[in-house]
Amino acid sequence: MTSNFNQVWNWSSLQRKTDALMNKAYINAAERLVINALKINSAPQNILDVGAGSGLILRHLANKNLNHFNYTGIDLNTEGLEILKQRASKLNLSSNVITKQDDITKKNSDFICKYDMIISNFCLYTISNSDRRQQALDNISSYLSDDGSFHISLPSENYSAGNISFQCFKDELIDKQNVVLKTIRTTLLVPYQWHFVLKPIEAKVESGDFTKFNPLQIETEFRKSKLKITSLGLDYGGCGYHIHGFRDKG
Ligand SMILES: C[S@@+](CC[C@H](N)C(=O)[O-])C[C@H]1O[C@@H](n2cnc3c(N)ncnc32)[C@H](O)[C@@H]1O
Question: What fold characterizes domain 2-247?
Answer without folding.
Answer: Rossmann fold (3.40.50)
